[in-house]
Fold this sequence. Notes:
By secondary structure, this protein is mainly beta. It has no helices and 35 strands.
Amino acid sequence: MMSDSKLTRRALMQSTAALGGATLVGQITLPALADEQAVISGETEHFYYRLAPTGPYIDSQCDSKAFGFNDDAIYLSKDNAKTWQHKAVFGDANQITFSCILKNGSVLFATQNKLYRGSDDLQNIDEIPVLDQAGQAYPSHKPIDPNKPGWYFHPLDGVHTWEIDGKEIVVWGNYCNVLGGAVPVNIYYSVDGGKTVKLAYTFGVSPAYQQKGAGPDQLLGDPNNDVIARHIHCVSYNPDEDAFYACTGDHDEKDGDQLKHECHWLRGAYDWGKDEWDWQVVASDSMNTRYKSGGINFVDGRLYWCSDANGPKPHDRGIFACDPKDLADQSKHTMLFNPTYEIANMLIEDGVILSGHYTPVSPYHVGIIISPDMGKTWAQYNLKGMGRWSPVRFQKKNDEGWFRIDLRERWIKRGKVMFIKPKV
């Protein structure tokens, strides 16, 4: 069942070409609700929903703050995008592929292959160099095709910060090698409010995801790591273990005579004193199994995740839960729900489980999956009136109780933003 609104849809923000450079301007107040009729709103039995209002593309939120952009400027709101108090002209704004609002109020954001940190009023914007595990510069590669520098910092999940013993850590992985060109597959982190970003882990050299025409000295990835992946689906933190988990995709690739999996689960422990990581592969399997997955969440010591298994049938799909120590033992997993179709994004907050369908493989237009009670009961909704989009990058509720979700063309090209507020 579902309830659709008949209001007109939010106009799409179209991006054409990057202009380059950033110029700062003074504070402004830009109304976010300039056209009330540009917002689709409705409700189901389980939640209210609405599209973002006309104005800057709302790329991320945290408490009452929202970060947005249009073709040539970035914006920061401190009242949940009702108004935009701060603006900076930024020529590459329509190339932004990642943003994260930090505890100190600053914003870590990226274009395709460059990383920036904006102050809490956007009056200072600095390009942030990335360092490798040894603390040396880790520059992006020089692309053979300058129009395809790659998406170095783009994530498909929506939660990237955690507080550990009163200290904030930012950790995320790049969902890459789909649009924008070939790039190495990395997990990044920052422990100083975005002033320094370093590599937590870098995957090996994949034979499938390299630049066309690349020579032996132009191959991307860590030549000393045998673990390969196309991209990272999700990184999450388990406070009970004080450890991070990451899962990757997508295929089973031939490397010479050897068949290598790209679907892995890794467990990483961070040593704050030594500023070092210890990563171990927990599970590796083929693309038609539950280990081709995403949406990693930890609640009360339990691990929850969802699967977008595909490839040769049968497909081992669903929403699963287990004790983290039993991840590699399928006999100890519990399937909480099977939505039939592929899903790889999920977020749990305050007992509500929220997930969504991928439109390329699902008949749902905007397919939302919800459990209001930690998996005891489930519902699926097809929000046809919003167009045909894949919900990804689920972000935690703002201080008014609204989850923020990307709606993307197929599953990766930026389209719209929607908000969902559970009725619990």
